Amino acid sequence: MFDSAAQALKFIQENDIASIDLRIVGLTGQWLHVTIPARHFTHSHFEEGVGYDGSSGSGFTRVESGDVAAIPEPDTAFLDPFWERPTLSFICRTVTADSKQPLPTDPRQIARNAVARLRQSGIADEAWMAPEFEFHVFDRVEVVSEPYESRVRIVSGEVHNDGTNPVISTKQGYLRPPPADQLHDLRNEIALTLESLGVPVRYHHHEVGAPGQCEIEVAMDTLLRAADRAMLVKYVVKNVARRRGKLATFMPKPVFGEAGNGMHVHQRLTRDGKPLFFDPRPDRYANLSDAALQYVGGLLRHGRALAGITNPATNSYKRLVEGYEAPVNLFFSLGNRSAAVRVPRYTVQPDEKRIEYRPPDFTGNVYLTLAAMLMAGMDGIQSRIDTAREGFGPHDVDIAGQSAEFRSRITALPHSLSDALDALLADHAFLTAGDVFPDGFVQAWVDAKRRNDSQAVRLRPHPHEFALYLDA
Fold this sequence. Notes:
This protein is of the alpha+beta class.
C-alpha cells in the first residue's frame, strides 16, 4: 500500500486512523496481532519495531531467550474492514530484540531466503505463486473433546434445512446455483472485500462438497506477496463468515464422505520478465520447457518429504485418499486431477504456462509451504531431473483405475502425518541448502508436530472406535 514509512505516517495523519494493528506470522501459520493507538505510532516503530515474547504463541524462541521484535513493512499495509474504528494493519517481519537482525525462524524470512537463493542460482529472478482457496462454510460446529465426552456436530443449511430449499446431495455441489447454493452472497462479499484490499479475484464458486464447500481463486503474484495475500484471504473469509453468523474453516477433511479442502498451488518462474516454463516446439509435452519438467521432477522427487511441511496435520491424510480428486500418487499429467502435479490444459500462452502442485492444504504455514516447494523445484532444475527416467510420467490416466503392477511403479504420498514427518527427516537437505531453512529447524518442526499433533490424536479414543469396539 505504501512505498515508505513516511508515506504511511502521512496517510495515518490525513485519514483519521484510530489504531495501528501489527500482524505477526507464527510458526504454525496463524496470524497474531498487537494494536497501538495511532497517535503513539511513530517513525521509530518502522526501525525499532514492537517487542514481544517470541516463546508464547509464535513459537519462534525458547522461554529463556524469548524477546523478539515485530517491524511493520509499509508495502503490506491494508485498511482493516472488520474493526469498528478506522484501523491500518501492517504485516511484520520478526527480528532479534537487541541487534534487530532477521530472525532465522521467521516464516517470512525463510520465504525471503528461498527467493534470494533462486536469484543467486541464476535460474530465475522471480517465482510466481497462486494458491487456490477451498474452504467450508457451516452454520454451526459444536466440538467437545473431553475425557468423558467426545463429539462433533456440524450443521449446514445446504444439507440440513426446514424443507424450504433444495438440499445438495453428497459430492454434488460443484458450480451449483441458488437456491441450492446458499452462500453466493457471502462469497461475493468476500470477493468484493478482497478486491477493495487490492487482491484481484479471478472467480468464486460452490465446490464439490455438499455442506457449504466453496472456492475462491486469486491472481498470481511473487512468492512473498502471494503468501501475504493468502493470509489476508483467510482472514477475510473467516471474518465475513463470522459477520454473517456462520463459521468458515480451511480444515482439510471436516466431513466424512465429502470432498476435502486442498491448497492447489500454481507456480511458474521468470527471468528478466520472460517466462521460463514455456517451450513453443510442437513435440514438447504440454509445451513445457526443460526447466519446467525439471522443476516438476524436483517437486515429485521430494514430494514425500514436502508433505511434512505442506500437509502437517493428522487431518491432512484423511483428505489424501482416492475417490475425491485428491492426489495420492507422485506423478504429473496434463489436466489430470488425480496427479500430484497437474499442468492446466487452458494455459497455452507463454506468460500463462505454469504447473499446479495439488497435495498441500492450509494446515501448513503458507510461507514455509511456498518456500519448500520452490526449494524442491530448484533442486530439480539444478539436478537436471529426467521425469521420464524417474517414473514420474506423464501419465494421462486415472491412476485409481490402473493395474496393481502399473500402480506399483509410482511412488505414493505418505498415508499419515507420522510417515510424512519420517520422510521429512530422511530428506531435507534440499531445504537447508544455502541456509534457507535454518539449521535445526526441521528437527524442531518434526518434534513439535509429533508432540502437538500426531501423538495428541493417537492417544485419544476416536468416537467411531466406540461403534466398532464398545461390545468387545
